[in-house]
Fold each of these.
Amino acid sequence: MTTTTSTTPPRAAAGPATTRNGLRRVGVLARAELRLLVRNRTALFNALALPPLTMALFTAAGGVGDAADDVVGPVLLNVLTLMSLTFVVYYNLTVAYVARREELVLKRYLVGESSRAEILAGAAVPAVVVALAQAVLGVVAVSVFLEPPAFVNPLLMVLAVVGGSVMLTALAAATSGLSRTVESAQLTTLPLLFVALPFAGIFGGPGSSSGVFDTISTFTPLRPITDLMMLGASGIDGDGQALTFVETLAAARVPLGVLIVWTFVGVLAARRWMRWEPRR
Amino acid sequence: MTSEPIVHVRGARRRYGTFEAVRGVDLDVHRGELVALLGTNGAGKTSFVELVEGLAPSDGGTVRVLGHDPYRERRQIVGSLGIMLQSAGFSGDLTVIETARTWAGTLSRSRPVDVVLDAVNLVHRADVRVASLSGGEKRRLDLALATMGDPEVLFLDEPTTGLDPESRRATWRLVQGLLAAGTTVLLTTHYLEEAEELADRIAIMQAGRIVRSGSVADIVAAEPARVELVVRNAAGRPVVPTVGDLPSLEGVVGVPEIDRVGRLRLRTTSLQDDLFTLLQWADARQLRLDDLDARSASLEQAFLAMDGAGSGAHTDDTTEVAA
């Protein structure tokens, strides 16, 4: 004990340093979560191997179809991004939130100085970093091995990965609240993985889908990620038109709006369903 | 910051649906003091302490810690609090030192991690995964995290449950060290010995209310002493006296109990006088008082007496008020 006086005044609130402290706490929590990810082989496999394997399988199964050469890269890049966002961010994170809750770790952090948002973000950072890294590696890979995509609007690609991560983090927090155990998270994550994914627009390049199915799928949670990736990487819109940088911005309004709405829904759902300690 | 209590609670209430777990609690804890909250399981200790820790809003009354509402103004005081919950977990795949460093990293001010681990005797286990720790070691790690930030106010919810006697004493020494350095502590326990060892004041909680509070001496003094003996004649045969046979005893509480073999039990508020009277009475009749046992009340006895009163109070509120 270094304190010798018994008349220390109460410590002042952090004040202007709050944000910096908040970031520091997220960093510390993220480092612990990264260690846990590295020590959990199942989660590590899901994070590192599943997305590239899926991309390889997709190619081998002829998923690219008869897409034009300059679209093959963006299509594969999009498959990789969707897989890493759904499996690394959404699925792994749902499981991680459930595990931390059931082992009473969330409750412990909650009594400390970290806010709820910081605790959730801390756990999410490693997953989001892995997803981002895979997207970057994917960009490098398709540029080296295939006809390099046009990358008309890289900003939209960043928005697809970062915005998708935020949305799926919120949805993961909500889904964790509906999962009693780590095992039941395998079921509760199914709706997004197996209902939303087919609507994500992976199958078939741009312009190949139309009609009611396409209209419906435009408003599903994963579709804006595809739309933004394709717009950003190839500059080709849903009708097969090649767009300029400025035109891609205009075309991105709908998918961005859909992404924002789903993020908002995710945050509301997380506030409604997320639980911080096991049900007694 | 002069005479304002560090913890100030008036009429605190907490409900779960229709069940009211905390039913109007008043409690003050002053700077540098340790107050022990005693009660049986289900008395509402944890439900109440969670209000003071700011983990739940109170459903009535006033709760202030360091002058703030601990739930609504938690941000302003959380850096000054150390909280050891009854049940908080660890990630089993992190080592002791990783767990401690992570926690220290989330604090606005932290003592050196190795010093804190040393204080709970966990340095030699620093590189062990938490999943491999014993229950007692986990509890000590819990205590290490709660004291890591050099808190001004420390809340300990059953800190020594599951510890072996040696670790329990080590924990007491640690808490006493913190008290000596000026830390204010609110502790819950159901070990009476722990309360006697550490507490400046005790509050006994029952069915959501504090039914008695004061120093150990105050609480014990209010409880009658006990006398127990078996009456035999000069030949050593048991004699079964009736209550009417007994001398008049000044301080006796209730009616003395006499069973079939002549064992007499009574409770008295003036042990010395009544014992003297009994001895004189036996001497004059040439009776022997075997197994004579006369003792002042202990905290345990005071506690059990209250618990007996309390178990009736679950169904009838008015008797509880009387208790």
Note: The first strand of chain B starts at residue 7 and ends at 16.
Amino acid sequence: MESQRGAAAGAALPSSRAQGSTSGDGGGGGGGGGGRAEVPRPATAKSMTPVALRRLQKEFSEWHMSSRTSDTQPLPPIYLETPVQRLDEWYIGLRGADSTLYAGEAFRLRFRFPTDYPIESPEVVFVGTTPLHEHVYSNGHLCLSILYDSWSPALTVNSVALSIQSMLSSATEKRRPPDNDAYVRNCRGRSPKQTRWLFHDDGV
Amino acid sequence: MRCEILGARLVAAWTWNASDDTCGICRLPFDATCTDCKLPGDGCPLAIGQCTHPFHLHCILKWLASANSRGQCPLCRQEWQFQQQAE
């Protein structure tokens, strides 16, 4: 089961990227969600279940309704990067909160949604500059239980991004996880969801 | 005096009795359906846990069937036990 899921995710991403860029594929099932007409609807990934599609469309329009997107000036502390090219891959901008160790720093999170989101958790990693934090590996992987074992379908992109921001905010020193080098060497290119995580620090 | 009623038009409204308006799993209103159903009402009922958290029955069943759930309520992580079907 593990390997099946891994294979499916691995196979889906590159190919659906190619399709998405040529034709913008679907529009299929793009009906629900409400929201404003001027918001461009991202191409729908073919393999998404109806539950995943409608949940993502709902969350997508909520980001727009609350104006927490990169269209907004000034940028909110957490925002959805627009335009979203594909419904199953979002980028969230995150700025370090004032009067924390990360004040003034900016980061990007990449969310990739499995076909049965929200029953299955999204894959969430930092891309680009990764914050220097005890639970963030230099390849962008996060050691955060809600992304893996403690995932709940009641969590949303927004609540996950908030948790990550609060994880950064509560840091008292900037350092990499002690096993960073070994881990990063080991998991070359693999999804963090394939890692078996041990969560030992409930305080953060 | 006597009056004769020639016709009447009755309208009824219904709503689920739940502590919340929307399902925490699919994020759609309880008075609509889960994503798999077409007609709201008895065909797509609510389920309430002993922890009092309501979901669409179909949504919570899907969650409980997944290994990720560990049998827990998505909102409070207590072990999920059906309370009763909403009336």
Note: The first strand of chain B starts at residue 46 and ends at 49.
Amino acid sequence: MANIKIDGNELQVPDGITILEAADIAGIEIPHFCYHKELSIRGSCRMCLVEVEKTPKLVPACSTTIKDGMNIFTSSEKVIKNRKGVLEFFLINHPLDCPICDQAGECTLQDYVYKYGSAVSRFTEEKEHFERKKEIGPHVLHYSERCVLCGRCIRFCEEISGTHELARFNRGIRCEVDVFPGKKLDNKLSGNIVNLCPVGAMVSKEFLFKSRVWWLTHTESICPLCSRGCNIEIDSRDNRILRVRPRPNPEVNSQWMCDDGRFGWSFVHREDRLTSPLEREGEELVPINWAQAISLVKERLSFIISNFGREAVAAIASPYLSNEDNYLLRVLLHSVIRSPSMAVYQAAQMEEQIVFPSGFTIEADKSPNLVGAQDVMTVDGKKPISHGKLLKKVASGEVRALYILGGVPRISLPVDEREMLRKVDFLVVHNYAPSELTEWAEVVLPNLTFAEREGTFTNFQGRVQRLKPALLPPGEAKADWEILQEVCQAMGGEMSYPSVEKVFEEIAGAIQGYKSLSYKDLGTQGKVKG
Amino acid sequence: MRVVTPKMSLIDRIYIPALIKGLYTTIKHFFMRRFTQEYPEEKRKPFPRYRGLHRLNKDHLGRVKCVACYMCATACPSKCIEIEADEAPWKDREKYPVKFEINTLRCIFCGMCEEACPELSIQLTHIYEMADVTREAFVRRKDDLLGTNEFWVLKEY
Amino acid sequence: MSPFWIDLIIILIKVIVVIGALLGGVVVMVVVERRGAGFIQERLGPNRVGPWGWLQPIADGIKLFFKEEFVPAQAHKLLYLAAPAFFMFIAFVTFAVIPFGDKIELFGRTIQLQIADVNIGILYIFAFASLGIYGIVIGGWASNNKFSLMGGVRSAAQMISYEVALGLSIIGVLMIGQSLRLNDIIGVQTQYWSYLPRWNIFIQPLGFLIFLIAAIAEVNRIPFDLCEAEQELVVGYQVEYGSMKFAMYYLGEYANLITFSALIVVLFFGGWHIPWIEGLTIHPLLLALLQVGAFVVKVFAFLWFFVWVRWTFPRFRYDQLMRFGWLVLLPLAIFNILATGVVMVLIP
């Protein structure tokens, strides 16, 4: 441990860290461009220079390690003068097109100039111009003029994605960042460069001119597109998602997320989202109201129970829905109907696992909550059977009624499984839009997507993480746990869960491994189950 | 200090002189200059800084000057400006508004948009005759606001 | 033709002329009041309909006539509809005994320029003026609206308080005139003291003042319009009235105003009498016309006075109204009677 003094505050910090990190511990902000927590240190922007006692010149805070007895001044006259000078140099060729720059509002250069810079420029000559907008990849646009040459993007491609697409080209005033000739910035992590860029030099093609950032509502959520469960922030406006950004969580996704998750939310705004319960009339599905739908489900299930026995009712839980939703399906089957035929839909989508040099991994299993779904469907230590086995029971006529939870963003059922669904007498499906599952369903109940949903996902590591609703549900669509609760009550179950929190409390009480958890303590980073 | 109610003299208490004085005051006003402006015939000339209907200015090529930076919409306290931006079809310009609507029913004519505009694109004119019969008509679209200019020249106040 | 039929025709003509004149007076008053108010407040007032705004009352009338006939759901329908008609009827009937000119000789007949020369004319007027209050009270009650009812109740209380002073204030005039017949009262006033006409205003200034104030209260105008009181009671008993029912109240109010102006002129300003005209030789018919003209001018002067007062003074508070009526006007009126009596005994 080293004893140091920053701006007069004495504190103890671990050895070997830099001044910038020490200042962070002390809660003092030191402006910087090129430094990034997850990237190697360059010390090229000269923004973070601070004064150290008994040192003749200012030293870069990001690359100077702490020594015992150091006395650091982060806002002395010299430091402030340096910041002002550095910012003036940055602004010499910066186009100052903040009004039409997507970064405005979350731009570090803008913030620093506002805080430390000068309001006037002494530069009267013509600014250096570059090709204004370059499409360097499928998701990223590059504005060379706005670039401060911090090199974060280059280091990202070298160290995190390991794909080496970007480099500095030319020298001096013509120096700019670009892709190597003939290459495209098309790795699976390219979207991160947009977040990484401290200015508006790298902007997202999808988000271009969609909204000013200060109008966005930020909601902390979990990416539903693979079992890693990257922590994300949903930025929405007027009940529409406009962009998704990663949220730092060192245990799960560090600071990054893949482009599949970043741009894969379009299914939320599908035109054909279901807005009311549907009942089959011949070939067609016709809208009915909730009371009718629930009583219809109750009638048909009761009919099948009284004619074919309890075991004739089976259910398939969904790894795409939250623990709470699946738990209520278990309550319906296990506690209300008392049928053992429960399965979890598995292997819905498997792709090759992608591991980047930094260790960031895109998981093979594309369902976000397989672990959780299996956990909550485990009754008395007995794991749920595979859905294939359950479908065989359907084929044999053992199962007459099937209750399926859907919610899969992209589904392709094998043909034989689709045919098997035809054989059931009564098929209830929860889904957010028409799909192959709803093709034969007798009753379709509209549920929510991850953006409208509240609940928890358990990722492949067993980390339980919270989703928060970012959007209002379309039409009369409801969360699955709410629908299932109504079905349970209609079937004579005496349970009532006023909120997701109450369901989670019961999960924590009933499911092995969740005992130490409570909904509030999950926080923003989640907790690993025991 | 004690507040002393002034004692009223007999003349005061009879009230009649005061009543006559009141009658005199009103009849004096009867013969004074009238301040009524007979509106449709006689129009008020607005003060130079009067804030009336908005206009969208054009650049030297006759294109909308607005760059869709949303500064006006951000500054607007009544949130009456709705803009939809897109990439401009012109080479020298990047962003332009495909939709620019001002709901003049919500607008409070504070002029904040004018102050916020970095391009001198939105300005408030002296036009104050904005009455209409449908709600839709009060939502001034981009073309209406660009046309305000001609309207403004035609209407001399 | 028998004299009976001729008399009937003459009376009918007089009735029609008087009602026409009253209605015409109301029309004129609407314009005078609204434009006068405008001028006093340095506005122009309504000047759009017709030259100088003279057709404004016609426009108002057309508007009111075509408005929806609306009866509140909980109102007493019969009384609700009857009240304004009753009010207007009383207001017009009261004018019957007012003489608006001297006798004229026409086609060998003496025609009294008055509908009915009743020997208790003054009592007739008071009786009918008091009946008018029923139009207000019934209207206020039948509307089944708390504001209406309060307006009606206030009106009744005000009427009782001020009718006493009103009645007592003219006892002095009656003592001098020695008659309840209005023509006799005018007759006394056509005499002279050397050159000064013996108008009652000079003999009974206090009586005149009390009568004037009580008359304003009697016709429910500012500063005594407590039964309407826009600010507190919306418009009091008229709240639930619209279209022609409202117009009837409106007409009745102005007719009352004209009647009381005429009464003031008759009692205190010599009625149709033109001073110092007796010395001139004028054709008797022309003289009669001039006298009618003089009467109209005098009445109109008082009508304008009422307008003027309305746009000058604020409204009384209810307690002030009551205190003023009972503790000031009533003792003063009694004092006036006593003083008149003493003077009449001392100077026969």
Note: The mean pLDDT of chain C is 85.
Amino acid sequence: MPRKFHGLKKPKVRQDWSKENLYNLSRATIPTAANKTFFQQKWLAKSITRAYHNPHVREGTWTRMFDRRLPAVVPMNYRYLARHDGSELASGRGSGLTKLSAKASGKGRRGDDERPPEKTPYMHMAYHPLERRLDTAIWRALFASSTRQARQFVTHGWVKVNGKKMIYPGYLLNPGDMFSVEPDRVLYATGARKLKTKSNRSLQHKVEPRPTSRSRKVQRKSDPENEESPDATATTDSAEGSGSVDKLPDEYEDPKQTMKALRLRARQILDESKTKLSGKRQQELRLFARSVWKLLSKARGEDKTKSKFIIPVDESVQDLEATLGEIIAKIPIDDLPKEETKPADGSNPQARADDAYTARKEAELLHAALARAQENPIDARKPYATPWQPREYMSAFAFIPRYLEVNQNICSAVYLRHPVARPGLAEVPTPFHAETSALAFNWYLRRR
Amino acid sequence: MPPRIHTGRLPQQVPAQCVPSSQCVKAAQHGPARSFHASSRAQTRLRRSMYGWLNGPGAVFREPMKGSTNYLGAYDKSGKLARLRLLKRDAEENAEDEGSKELETEASIVQQEIDQGVSDEEREIRAEQRAVARQEAQGGANGENPMPKERRSDLRPYPLNSNFRSQRVLSEELREEVYRLVAVKGEAVSAISARLGIDMRRVAAVVRLKTIEKQWIDEGKKLATPYSQSVLDMLPKTPLVRGVRHPYPHEDINDLPVHPRTRAQLFYPTSESRQFTREDAAKVFDSSLLPADKRIAHPQLIQYEKWALEDLPREDQQARREKIEQKEKAQKEEREREEAAWKERTIRSVPGRRWDFVFQDISAENVGKDGRGRQGVGYRYGVPHQDRKRGLIKIPTRVE
């Protein structure tokens, strides 16, 4: 392990998602060759590429793994194969008719492609045997934030291969092997870090100020559409927020807010469809609103004493959500047009029916929002910030090579085949220029 | 001995309480005394420039971009999206006659295809694919998402390496569809692979993983849904296109591995009049090498295409296809039966308390002439086992 892993003076690109690495990657250049001998060029190329391609594998081990035969494939067009038997390439003066050869060479998806065939970047495949390693594959599948972390997961026993615990990070995956990492570990590795051990808050958002309640109110006032009653606007606001993806984080933020919205929603359903709902439904809804209110007041009391209301409230949100779901299921559906949602007008029967419809619709939206909140709950006991959100700078490193098939839901992936080079594309992800890769490959050829 | 200081080098007004020492002199020369706390060490120039980049052009990478990938290759030096600039330029250039141009190109493509003698069925498929691609591009440009679609160069996470780009992954809906077609409807993996343009191994893996996912749901085990959603948002995806029989393919399904025998350049003289085909060429490289037609993953597609070229009626083509499929199925069953019979014959399993003991006949000749043959089993005189040597780690080579 080098002393300066993310040094800025002699920057090395590493296999991880840190901001230092991103910065080093952004300013990486091709090393100058003009003032170096060929041996020096090769040495430098080897040293910078090895710093990326698993430096934890000892050099001796790696040189034994190295293979100068680099795997490659050529995509074939079955339509072309059906039309020609291969003799067309030797027609004319022995190298194919000019027009035909142009066609044959452009074996892209369209036969009429006139571009010359792309070259196969063999040299980028110099480190392909290392991609077979279990720790590298875990990192490539986006289950860990670095190969070192992936390695730790393996040695600590969080990783299974084909359903059996595998504790060797150097295990070489075979085509068809399935590896799975414990989902909680994956969420920890890829999620935002916590501000403090005891809280659920994220470290990466502490700088940004949250919108205060006053500023939110100002926003609502400025909205020209919902200006009739402050109560109604507030509730529709929350319902809309739950519907769209943009406002989701807000919805997650505070279970207390969610509950308040829930109570208002129930009351609004009650108000708007008073004429439509049966007495029993009304009773249920009232009971529901009251129970939410009780829970809120209880949370407030605890807040004053211990400020640890998060977990109990979160658990009970699930119960409440289930109750609301039941109540919604009992509200009758109206087969009325939904385009027009006019403000409530007691005298008009059409408008009343509309109200019932919108009430049901909004209640459903709320139900969905709660389900989502349940999927990504706030829990201070977790080792990562909750609700879960991706770690900063992750998106710049997020790609999954084609030799893996990943199912993120169960944090498992299948190693389909060994990585190969194909025209215009090398499947081993490497941040270096082709020249550097070629020099490194040359270093490992025994004659230097 | 006290340190010797030349009085001539001392400044004129030395504070009265300060004992003349080298430190005191330094403080007097450099103004305010430096802090001795490690935490408040002054940032180096390199660190300052790093934070300058992270808070300037690099700030865009902190959070994922909504509805798009967010790679280093998509931005210029100042941290601006390269494709946005291009989009602006394009919009200025061809503000008018876009629709007519599009129709024109479509017509010209169709005409070209007719000239080339592409079959009707084939033309339909291609037209469908073009329509889907166009729809996608438009949806990216002016649908609900204002961000234009990524170009190929925008998908480069490593700016120096132009030969690597982030490739598309299967979207959640497409995976679900693959699972439905294979596991629920029971269609053949190869047929699904050819239709959707997904590698056969990938189709099998998707089904395998989806099966486990369903199992988890049944067991009430919690899925990593928030992780899944946000990771898939960061990646380029192949969407599920409904109502199209031949959607845009996900990947090349007929990859021909480069055989090591074909790496050498050969000079093979042959008569001019000879019809020298791929099959002959394969034989020249190696007597046992098969031609490309037989080494690709879906050789049956070539046959189907040949029938289409012969202008066979569709019903005939269908009948022949079914015949071939049945034949293959029968062959597969036969192979499986033979394997099972062989196992029955040669392998004997004795159930134990914890483990089953498996016995299989081996031949002592398998060790070969030098006694080190891979098939050889057991202790051989003069050939020591390596596995007790110091420093040799015994990592398993496969997990069943």
Note: Chain B touches chain A through 91 residues (CB under 8 Å).
